[in-house]
Amino acid sequence: MTANQQPEPTGDSTWFRRPRAGGGRVQDTDDPGGRITLPSRPPRPPLRQVSARLLLALLVLASTTLIVWLDRSGYNDNSDGAVDLLDAAYYATVTLSTTGYGDITPVSDGARLTNILVITPLRVVFLIILVGTTLEVLTERTRQQWRVSRWKDTVRDHVVVIGYGTKGRHAVAALLGQGFPKESIVVVDPQPKVVEQAALDGLVAVRGDATRSETLIRAELPRAARVVVAPQRDDTAVLVTLTARQLNRRATVVAAVREDENAPLLRQSGADVVVPSSSSAGRLLGMSMLSPNTGAVMEDLLTFGTGLDVAERPVTREEVGRSPRDCDDLVVAVVRGRKLLNYNDPEAALLKLGDRVITIQQAVPRT
């Protein structure tokens, strides 16, 4: 891998090129440590929220002006004694804003009763509209801080997915298809729009540079059980893997790499499994060219939740002492300790308690 390696545009929304000053690490000046975003519902556009509040405030002001003008005979203007429409609007404005200069005052019993029963409630509504936005922001910030604090206290043995592009999204889809709860998946990405989309998808998301320890610490990576490294550049993947392995030596780290020649670097950096995306796609293309049916079956196996699925499960007590061929599922490999044995390997002739089998089985429809 060369230092000047540049990413190729892929049409992926998460492709990015960031300048590096002096060859050092990229500094995230907008948010140096990353920001945690918890799952949320699609928010209303801010302009629409402000416009709705402003329109409601203007309606209250117009209603108050009309009420005062209709009862103008019960008011006295210290300047000329008469109250016209402009004076009514002026009185409504200073009254609703609680300024109250006293130059226009209700003098009749009816006007005073109207102020008590109508104008005062409108004043309260007007103040709620004006102050409501600020209170809502403060309340939401406090609520967000409480949710983040509670999440940090409870998250354990989760999955951290670094990079929410095409590879990251499909990795998350595969995890969800195999029964992982959404609250056990944390996404890390440097782009605000991508982080927002991950939150809308129901995932906890952290915005920041994943090559920096503080960003991964915000994602609680030291307590994670699995890490998926799926950035758009191979050099970034190496740095992220090094940083992740430094923070957590027990987690299973699976990394994607574009070029085969960079796979050894990722393994040396601490990745347990390295998936070369370009060569894997090329092999699938070649297989599909020679045998479209074979390519279709492989695509089916790689798409979890449809047709046939490849899954790993523990050996049941009924299967202990039996041959892998005798299992109800189609067993293609046996995991014994840290060894991966093919189904026809002599060592895997009889299944043992504690073994795990990799099987091809009918997909379970998603509910």
Give me the secondary-structure topology.
Blueprint (H helix, E strand, L loop, with lengths): L34 E3 L8 H25 L4 E3 L7 H12 L7 E3 L2 H46 L4 E4 L3 H12 L7 E5 L2 H9 L3 E4 L5 H6 L7 E4 L4 H14 L4 E6 L5 H7 L3 E4 H14 L1 H11 L5 E7 L15 E7 L2 E4 L13 E7 L5
Parallel strand pairs: 4-5, 4-7, 5-6, 7-8, 8-9
Antiparallel strand pairs: 1-6, 2-3, 10-13, 11-12, 11-13
Descriptive overview:
With 367 residues, the chain is α/β, with parallel strands linked by helices. Helices cover 43% and strands 17% of the residues. The chain is built from 10 helices and 13 strands. It has helices spanning 46-70, 85-96, 109-154, 166-177, 192-200, 213-218, 234-247, 263-269, 277-290, 292-302; strands at residues 35-37, 75-77, 104-106, 159-162, 185-189, 204-207, 226-229, 252-257, 273-276, 308-314, 330-336, 339-342, 356-362. A 7-stranded mixed sheet has the order 1-6-5-4-7-8-9, with helices on both faces. A 4-stranded antiparallel sheet has the order 10-13-11-12, covered by helices on one side. It is elongated and about 110 Å long. The two termini are 44 Å apart.
Task: Summarize the structure in short.
This protein has helices at 46-70, 85-96, 109-154, 166-177, 192-200, 213-218, 234-247, 263-269, 277-290, 292-302, and strands at residues 35-37, 75-77, 104-106, 159-162, 185-189, 204-207, 226-229, 252-257, 273-276, 308-314, 330-336, 339-342, 356-362. By secondary structure, the chain is of the alpha/beta class. The longest helix is centred in the middle third of the chain and has 46 residues, at 109-154.
